[in-house]
TrEMBL record:
One of its GO terms (biological process) is cell division. GO terms for cellular component: cytosol. It holds the Pfam family Atx10homo_assoc. It comes from Aphanomyces stellatus. InterPro entries: ARM-like, ARM-type_fold, Ataxin-10/CTR86_families, Ataxin-10_domain. This is Aste57867_426 protein. The gene is Aste57867_426. Residues 437-529 form the Ataxin-10 domain. The lineage of its organism: Eukaryota, Sar, Stramenopiles, Oomycota, Saprolegniomycetes. Keywords: Cell cycle, Cell division.
Length: 538
């Protein structure tokens, strides 16, 4: 008798033998061999045997929960009045889940953990077993929800055991729905959005649980299902939590890898491939809050960071720099969408001020908004720089309306003076605008490439001067000169008017804040060249 046959025979014994947990563990290890998984599938095991064992262990575990005052009939305190202060609330810790007998509870958790390890492994790449285990989906999600609520127990060892059981349950759910539409259709409403949101909120300290929950989502989205994709995109709170757990969490694992980051990124990469980036961005708006947040919200900034990261990883994957496989994005609507959003972000605010309840933004909010505006503009320019370099379709109306706005912003952040010293040992000071001009000039260079109308628009709105002024060496941003030279080549390619315009330009004056009085010289402009002459005595 094989180990799998012995396991099935043991499940039929009432009550189950104490060694059944060890049998589950042994079979779980053997399931690394595809032959073992196929053997289990061929036995056509009655899933009710597994369900009965799981239910029995779970019921025994629930009996170990210590009753609260309201559960055992004691005084519930409704006949009294209590007063508290903020300090009382800050100092008092809420009581966690208590267990009557820690050792007994730990034993039942261990039995369930061994069972789910086996279930997790035995259904891998085995459609017949996945179909057999379909009946366990509802039971598992209910148990998972309760297990998460028990993670507030003060018993450290039992808490770790419960967290591990929840992780293995999530792995089982992730494996049992892989390429199995029936299981996906059943699990999705059980998992999304309520259980997924509960995991993202209450288990944020458990990065592996976040990762395995994200893996369940990824597996339910493949193969493509329009209804599930739409329901995820429209779940605003879930999208925000996914972004926050991925981009604002600073808890990498011991080996430096963060599985949650990779799996959540795969969720958004899948959504972006299905051309939902614009819809996601709009769903994260907050136009009803204030005139400031109508243009931009912090959640939209996080989404832009995610899109920028996905595009960057996609470029790295094309050169073999990452181990994650990404398919190229072909959403032709992204370029005009972000061109329009960039224009809207920098549009003059002509909002109606007749609303009586509308309060003017405070100074602090205005300052925060300016920082967010600059950071968001850079993210949009990074994204547009990547998208336009892929030679995606770029509608002329959006591009022609976008160019003057971008040129105006580049003029706004143009340096007004040089450095007071040419010493290379002086560390350049960076601010929130660092990288803005280089990202913008890269976009201009891409959109004018072999585009006569865009080239002419650059000439009429002052874009050529911006490019020429960016050709100076800038120690704080050495790449800007390289992007400017590329952009100048593209803007002049096949455009005689631009070439003649640049030839007609000549230096007007020398502007320098470098103190040359000690040297007794001053810079002067002669025949379009800078020369040094002795400074006349006063």
């Amino acid at each position: 008798m094989s180990s799998v046959e012995g396991l099935v025979a043991a499940l039929q014994v009432t009550p189950p033998p104490p060694s059944l947990g060890e049998t589950f563990e042994a079979c779980a290890r053997q399931c690394a061999n595809p032959a073992t998984r196929q053997e289990f599938a061929s036995l056509q095991v009655d899933v009710k045997l597994l369900e009965a064992y799981i239910t029995g262990e779970w019921t025994a575990l629930e009996r170990q929960i210590a009753p609260t005052l309201g559960q055992n009939g004691d005084d519930d305190g409704l006949g009294y009045s209590y007063t508290t202060s903020k300090s009382d609330l800050a100092d008092a810790a809420l009581p966690g889940t208590a267990f009557l007998d820690i050792h007994v509870a730990s034993m039942h958790v261990a039995h369930l953990l061994s069972c789910y390890r086996f279930l997790r492994n035995v259904c891998v790449s085995t459609p017949a077993t996945q179909s057999t285990l379909h009946a366990l989906l509802s039971t598992t999600t209910l148990m998972l929800r309760t297990t998460i609520s028990w993670l507030d127990t003060p018993e450290t060892e039992l808490k770790a055991q419960l967290a591990l059981m929840a992780q293995v349950m999530l792995q089982f759910l992730g494996n049992v729905v892989v390429a199995h539409p029936v299981n996906q259709q059943t699990l999705w409403p059980l998992f999304h959005p309520d259980l997924l949101e509960k995991i993202l909120v209450e288990c944020q300290l458990y990065r592996k649980m976040i990762a395995y929950a994200a893996a369940v989502v990824v597996n339910c989205l493949h193969p493509h299902d329009a209804a599930r994709t739409t329901s995820l995109v429209e779940a605003r709170q879930v999208i925000i939590l996914l972004l926050q757990r991925c981009l604002t969490q600073e808890m990498p694992s011991d080996n430096g890898d963060d599985p949650a980051l990779e799996w959540i990124t795969m969720i958004f990469q899948t959504l972006f491939q299905r051309q939902t980036a614009a819809l996601l961005y709009r769903n994260l708006s907050a136009s009803l809050l204030s005139s400031l947040w109508a243009k931009l919200t912090p959640e939209q900034m996080l989404l832009l960071r995610m899109l920028d990261m996905v595009l960057m990883w996609q470029e790295d994957d094309s050169t073999g720099k990452t181990g994650v496989s990404f398919q190229p994005m072909d959403d032709a609507a992204l370029v005009p969408f972000f061109c329009d959003e960039f224009r809207a972000l920098h549009a003059t605010d002509n909002a109606d001020e007749t609303e009586p309840m509308l309060e003017a933004p405070s100074v602090d909010r205005q300052a925060m908004w300016k920082v967010m505006e600059v950071e968001t503009s850079k993210l949009m320019l990074h994204i547009l720089g990547t998208l336009t370099s892929l030679h995606m379709h770029m509608p002329q109306p959006a591009i022609l309306a976008f160019i003057p706005v971008l040129v105006t912003q580049l003029q706004r952040f143009a340096p007004t003076h040089g450095h007071s010293t040419n010493a290379f040992t002086q560390a350049p000071k960076e601010d929130e605008t660092y990288g803005y001009r280089s990202a913008g000039i890269r976009v201009l260079g891409n959109v004018v490439h072999q585009n006569t109308e865009a080239q002419d628009a650059m000439r009429t709105c002052g874009g050529l001067e911006v490019l020429l002024n960016s050709c100076n060496v800038d120690p704080t941003n050495p790449m800007i000169r390289e992007w400017a030279l590329v952009a100048l080549r593209h803007v002049c390619e096949g455009n005689e008017a631009n070439q003649a315009y640049i030839r007609a330009l000549s230096p007007q004056q020398v502007v320098s804040d470098v103190d040359l009085t000690k040297m007794g010289v001053e810079p002067v402009l002669e025949d379009n060249k800078i020369a040094w002459k002795p400074k006349p005595a006063e």
